[in-house]
Write a structure and sequence with these properties.
This protein has 996 residues and is an alpha+beta fold. The protein folds into three domains: 79 residues, no CATH class; 311 residues, no CATH class; 379 residues, no CATH class. 37% of the residues lie in helices and 19% in strands. Strands 21, 24, 26, 27, 28 and 29 form a six-stranded mixed sheet that branches. The protein has a six-stranded mixed sheet with strand order 30-33-34-35-37-36, sandwiched between helices. Strand 5 and strand 6 form a beta hairpin. The radius of gyration is 48 Å and the shape is elongated. The relative contact order is 0.06. Keywords: Membrane, Signal, Transmembrane, Transmembrane helix. Pfam families: Meckelin.
């Protein structure tokens, strides 16, 4: 059973193996092995390179000799029999046979298969020749071949009116204009023959027709072969016979001449206008007064102010919406297309790039008609490609298709603004006033026909191309349902001299933009600017008054005016910032989130106002920043050392050869340490600038928030690569950038204040604690008579001690076994705002002049010993004076401590003037940080933000803006540290070499 079942399989397998082996041997014998040196190349030949008796073999792609009695045909891809030879066999392959005709039948029939006698002679091709007006007859009615060909004269008499057709093989009825004019098939004088038509010379139609094509860009005007052949005939046929295609052809020629009208010359548009005016008795089409029966609709009329009425009077009876059940976000444009001869071709939608010369994917091309998507397409196209793709112009009448409330389909004519149109030699459509515009209807993309000068088959001398096409959609003011006015197509043509089409190219563009009246928004912005600007004036006046109080000067001088302007610059910068951020957020939220369309983004020209405001905000904020920057690096500061000597030591006296007791010197290292800590916190901020920039950049570039700034209706953070990417809106870029920057900045500040400072590190409070542990107070004057005081007097009496005693002091303080740190007994208040009297300031200045006369030990090598000793003496004098001032030693320069009123805190001004006594205001908010970066975080944050946005608005690049922002931060931080360090060394007599 097993053997029986396996036998056939084994046999089959054996047969398969033997068959495969045999096939392999056969192939080796039949086909030669491929040499390792064999190449796969052959000569490159073209059909025109073959000889007279050769044809181009489309299979072998080479030239092959024709057979006997043969020659190459007109196309060059096959052979044909020589004159006097008939075909015997021809199956479309290389093998066909020609046979010589008998002596009495030397002619060849039209199909080449038979020989025939030709009494009228032979043509160069060896076929029968007939006189003009005759047709050649080679076969009987039933197809029987005649032994002798005959030539039949066509009957031109009445009731027949026939002439030979173009091929000379059939009699056809002659053109109707010949019959109507002369009752024959000839057009004799005084009748006029033009364009193959015959017209009577009645005198009521212009006889002098200008057949020139205008090329205004190049300053040329020459006779066009197309116009010379067909302009007059089309115009007369349209005028006399109301021929529909002739009227369309005449309109096309007017459009080819840029719809230009000149009352002094009878060119295409003047002829069209003549016919239009003289057919006023005919009815209009669809009740449109500009559209006369039988004529194409080319113009809207030349009445002054007509264009604004057409463009902004009647809204389209349809609604557009981005979302919802009745979503309608597609502009359905259709066009009636005509060829140059006036034949209607078809209705076609504009999707697929009908009006877009630049090649692209269908998805990107169709994105131009997605409502709300600002579209921009630019490219450069070789002139040779244009000549190949557009040998003859196609004309389009564009309409917008819509559905009414009853679901009926309608179309609305789309007006055209041709920027090349001349009205009596004036480019009226380039005027800034729309009331002077002349709107038209029909457009074309490429005209390579009217530029042919002598021969319609030759290369055009000039070519006209629509290099700029812009579609404008205008939203109806105060609409809530997405109503729009009729769209406007703005088109500009360029004239190209075709000197070398293979090397020439042309730049073309296609754009779609959306507009709305921004008048109301501008009024609201102006109102906000006026109100907030007025408040800024009041705020600046209060700041100036507070500044005058703090410098102790009641006089209003030039310095006061300049100070007011600086304060006003800062407040006005905040006003511009608030307005621009509010405006940007308005457009971002309302445009992206709307369902029924009520707002559209401002066009680039309308954005200039906001961009100017942003620039003003940045410039003014930069002035405020520099003012604060300079103020911080020029403050007066002194470290009061409360440490006292602990006894006396024996000290050798130089030059006297003996010893004497001297006071134990107080260590300077505590002062150096506090000075270094102050130097370090000068540029401490509530945010991490690098983290801020990188996070903003991450959300913009990686997460995709920058896609919210695209000028389309989508609120998606990502875009698929095949889809069209709309251009960016500067307003939306600004809005997205500011929102991200502020949100991330505020989150950082909240984290820093709520968590980091409480649980990790608070450098400002740590500095105050350090001052107390070091037994050093800080006396700061940011103004002449105003500043800050940090009370650092140790409650333990001494700070210059060993580790054991220091730890014991900390333990006693933790267990409340010692007094509190405050300046006032039994209080913790260590920080104060101080308003000092003029007498106190004068005494301070007298000591300070000696202190700053030289820059202390840093210039010891270049200074005399006496000068250094004077500086040291001045330092001790200042330390002693300020210490005694704090201890109420000087009754004539005493002070008292009080709390600031709530209104004083709000307005930032002190109501009480320090006349006889200085005033110390309790300050629990550590406001001395206002002379540091730490206390000016809002100014720094907004300045960095505006810097980032200004760079981005200028270059449209978030990465570059982030890099430059970080660079300027580091530059200013370096300057602040360097100059602040020099000022610290100068004012405190701390050697700069110890500030690390």
């Amino acid at each position: 059973m097993v053997t029986g079942s396996g036998g056939p399989g084994v046999a089959m397998a054996a047969w398969s193996v033997s068959s495969a082996a045999a096939a392999h041997v056969f192939l080796l014998l039949v086909f030669p092995r491929v040499s390792h040196a064999q190449t796969f190349s052959f000569p490159f030949l073209q059909p025109e390179s073959c000889g007279h008796n050769q044809y181009f073999d489309i299979s072998a792609l080479s030239c092959v000799p024709c057979g006997a009695n043969q020659r190459r045909d007109a196309r060059g891809t096959s052979c044909m029999c020589l004159p006097g030879f008939q075909m015997i066999s021809n199956n479309g392959g290389p093998d066909f046979i020609c046979k010589k005709c008998p002596e009495n039948m030397k002619g060849i029939t039209e199909d080449g298969w038979n020989c025939i006698s030709c009494p009228g002679g032979l043509t160069a091709e060896g076929k029968c020749h007939c006189p003009a007006g005759h047709i050649l007859v080679e076969r009987a009615v039933n197809g029987t071949l005649l032994s002798q060909a005959t030539c039949k004269l066509c009957d031109e008499n009445e009731n027949s009116f026939t002439v030979a057709n173009a091929l000379g093989n059939r009699c056809v009825r002659c053109e109707p204009t010949f019959i109507n004019t002369s009752r024959s098939c000839t057009c004799s004088a005084p009748n006029i023959l033009t364009g193959g038509l015959c017209f009577s010379n009645t005198g009521n139609f212009p006889s002098r027709v200008i057949s020139s094509a205008r090329y205004g860009d190049l300053g040329m005007s020459f006779t066009s072969e197309w116009f010379a052949k067909y302009l007059q005939s089309s115009a007369v046929a349209c005028w006399v016979y109301a021929n529909l295609t002739s009227c369309q052809a005449l309109g096309n020629m007017c459009v080819m001449n840029m719809n230009s009208y000149d009352s002094t010359t009878f060119d295409a548009c003047q002829l069209f206008q003549f016919i239009f005016e003289n057919t006023a008795g005919l009815r209009t089409v669809h009740s449109i007064s500009f559209w006369r029966q039988n004529l194409p609709w080319l113009f809207y009329g030349d009445q002054l102010g007509l264009a604004p009425q057409v463009l902004s009077t009647t809204p389209l009876p349809t609604n557009f919406s981005f979302k919802g059940e009745n979503q309608n976000r597609k502009l359905k444009f259709v066009a009636a297309s005509y060829d140059v001869r006036g034949n209607f071709l078809k209705w076609q939608t504009l999707e697929g790039g009908i009006l877009q010369l630049c090649p692209d994917t269908e998805t990107r091309l169709n994105a131009a008609y997605s409502f709300g998507t600002t579209y921009q397409q630019n490219c450069e196209i070789p002139l040779s490609k244009i000549l190949t793709d557009f040998p003859s112009p196609i004309f389009y009448d564009v309409y917008l298709e819509y559905t009414d409330e009853n679901q009926h389909q309608y179309i609305w004519a789309v007006p055209v603004l041709n920027l090349n149109l001349q009205y009596n030699k004036i480019l009226v459509n380039q005027d800034s006033s729309s009331s002077k515009w002349l709107l038209t209807r029909r457009i074309f993309l490429v005209d390579a026909l009217s530029g042919r000068e002598n021969d319609l088959g030759s290369q055009p001398r000039l070519i006209r191309i629509a290099t700029q096409i812009s579609l404008s959609i205008h939203l109806v003011p105060n609409t809530k349902n997405g109503n729009i006015y009729p769209p406007l197509i703005t088109i500009a043509y360029s004239d190209i001299d075709t000197t070398d089409p293979s090397s020439q190219s042309v730049k073309v563009s296609f754009s779609v933009k959306y507009e709305m009246n921004q008048g109301e928004a501008q009024v609201q912005t102006d109102i906000a600017l006026g109100v907030l600007g007025g408040l800024a004036v009041l705020s600046s006046l209060l700041k100036t008054a507070g500044w005058k109080r703090r410098i102790g000067s009641p006089m209003i001088d030039l310095q006061t005016v300049m100070k007011f302007l600086v304060y006003y610059a800062g407040d006005l910068a905040n006003v511009f910032f608030i307005i621009t951020v509010g405006t940007g957020l308005y457009w971002l939220i309302f445009f992206k989130a709307q369902k029924s369309i009520s707002v559209l983004l401002p066009v680039p020209a309308q954005e200039e106002r906001l961009v100017t405001y942003v620039g003003c905000a940045f410039a003014l904020k930069a002035l405020q920043f520099l003012h604060k920057f300079i103020s911080q690096i020029t403050i007066d500061i002194f470290f009061i050392d409360w440490e006292r000597p602990k006894g006396k030591v024996l000290k050798a006296v130089e030059g006297e050869g003996g010893v004497r007791s001297a006071t134990v010197p107080v260590s300077i290292w505590r002062t150096y340490f506090v000075a270094n800590e102050w130097n370090e916190i000068q540029t401490v901020r509530k945010i991490n600038p690098l983290f801020q920039i990188l996070t903003v950049l991450f959300f913009l570039e990686v997460v995709g928030f920058k896609n919210l700034a695209l000028m389309d209706s989508s609120s998606s953070l990502s875009r698929s690569p095949p889809s069209y990417i709309a251009p960016y809106s500067r307003i939306l870029r600004y809005a997205v950038s500011t929102v991200l920057w502020l949100v991330i900045g505020i989150i950082q500040i909240m984290f820093f204040v709520v968590f980091y400072e409480r649980f990790i590190e608070d450098k400002i409070r740590q500095f105050v604690d350090l001052c107390c542990m070091s037994n050093i107070s800080v006396f700061l004057l940011s103004h002449r008579c105003f500043g800050y005081y940090i009370h650092g007097r140790s409650v333990h009496g001494h700070a210059d001690t060993n580790m054991e005693e220091m730890n014991m002091n900390l333990k006693r303080e933790a267990e409340n076994l010692c007094s509190q740190r405050g300046l006032v007994p039994n209080t913790d208040g260590q920080t104060f705002q101080i308003a000092i009297s003029s007498q106190m300031r004068q005494h301070y200045d007298r000591i300070h002049e000696t202190l700053t006369r030289k820059n202390g030990p840093a210039r010891l090598l270049s200074s005399s010993a006496s000068t250094f000793e004077q500086s040291i003496k001045a330092y001790h004098t200042m330390n002693k004076f300020l210490g005694s001032f704090i201890d109420h030693v000087h009754k004539e320069m005493d002070y008292f401590i009080k709390d600031k009123l709530l209104l004083e805190r709000i307005l930032g001004i002190e109501f009480m003037e320090p006349m006889e006594k200085s005033i110390f205001y309790n300050d629990e908010g550590y406001s001395f940080s206002s002379v540091l970066y730490y206390g000016n975080e809002a100014t720094l944050l907004i300045f960095d933000l505006l810097f980032f946005c200004v760079v981005d608005l200028a270059c449209q690049n978030f990465v570059l803006a982030a890099f430059l922002t970080y660079l300027q931060q580091e530059i200013f931080r370096f300057i602040r540290n360097t100059v602040g360090q020099k000022n610290l060394a100068s004012k405190t007599l701390v050697d700069q070499r110890f500030l690390i």
